[in-house]
Amino acid sequence: MRTLDGTNLTALAEHLAQQLVREAREPLHRQLYRQLRSAVRQGWLAPGSPLPASRSLAQELGLGRNTVLHAYEQLCAEGYCQGRPGAGTFVSLASPDQGPAPAADVPPTGAERGLARRAEALLEQITLRPEHPAAAFQPGLPDLAAFPWSLWWKLLHAQQKASTPAELGYRSDGGHLALRQALADYLRLSRGVNCTAEQILISGGMQQSLDLLARSLAEAGETAWIEEPGYSGAAQAFQAAGLACQPVPLDAGGLHWQGASLPRPRLIYVTPSHQYPLGCVMPLARRHALLAEAARQDAWIIEDDYDSEFRHTGQPLAALQGLDRQGRVLYLGTFSKVMFPALRLGYLVVPPALLAPLRSLQARLYRESDYPTQAALADFIRLGHFGSHLRRMRGVYARRQAKLRDVLHAELGDALQLMGGEAGMHMTARLPPGSDDRAISAALAKIGLCAPPLADYCLGPPPFPGLVLGYAGVAEDALLLNAVRLAAVLRGFGIGA
Predict the structure, then answer these.
(1) Taking a C-beta distance cutoff of 8 angstroms, is the pair 58, 68 a contact?
(2) Distance of alpha carbon 346 from alpha carbon 188, whole angstroms
(3) Which of 314, 392, 394, 400 is most buried, most CB within 10 Å of its CB?
(4) Cα(192)–Cα(10) distance, rounded to whole angstroms?
């Protein structure tokens, strides 16, 4: 058996280079991961031996460093390697494929088998945070106390009382017709979406919408381009469906793929009207270029219209979907941010050619959410309450953002650069170079503040250290108090001291 020494960079690189097929549809980071895993399984890379530094191996193979990092991360997630801070990545002393086999007459129990590796890999990426109204700065949480609850309960009770047996059984219509009609009218007028009620599917929220599209529009192993940094829920939905996520960097105009050597995408996920979490807006020329790129690559664009309803400067921007003339854009929205998360309702606007199959798959995979609630939401929109609530909260959130800016500037001066803010419910605070955003976020969590690090929104190394600060879900007095507490923690890390 040939033994490969990880410290012999040239020999290892020659072996790997012979196996990589750059023209294949399988992403290079998946190919590299498979080849290294095979080398470990077959004993070519001995237990305890180091892998080359990611930058060195990337240079030898002519790959991007992130490609190597993603391969190493997957090997570590599956137990083939271990990362040692400050030392590097090493082959595990015991491969997950080795170890004592169970006795032939005693089959392993479900508990002994444990989770599937892809579930364990997903859990490695999920960071649990305090998710309750008392956790100031939690992104994506609306002001629940300001919602018109008595009006909502009245509409919901009326629809529940008038429900027919047919509305309480299994349905496969794609959602309540009255809600789809109300949404079509709203989206055409406010977002420039080109759609009819028949093109709308009502889902159980954004994650269900993403899961449906990942399972329906791409084969396992195909690639999804995602924004870096970006919404981690999208990456997790795609990975759970067996897709390879390719992070694409951002510039001032959003997704910036031009000039980069990237694997061919099947899906392209974007938040063009208000990028999450950096807040940049994709200009018209970039939108047309993205549509042309999707046509050239034969890819679907998934447009997440995150936070578009809460625009604080100027008029709301028209959706990318309204520019689409080839039926390549699937437009997604949710009511979790504009109403309340427990509602668990979202929607998809899909090209006519996909409507029938996606409707059938949705009904079979998830079943449809309850129609009385959908009917109450249709009334809420149709009677003008939805628009009134949005207008009122738009003003509330704009004032809270301004106050948060004022306090942080008074406490820290120019040490903290706040990004975004033209729309939405959050800003991203760019920390000085060299700051440890994970350590700062952990210190804030200890005093009950939820300010996720920018690193949590990246598959690879973040472009800079930062914190994502939600300002919508906490009343002004509590917001001001907690902004002072946040500033005190930052000063303890030498920021603005």
Answers:
(1) yes
(2) 17
(3) 400
(4) 55
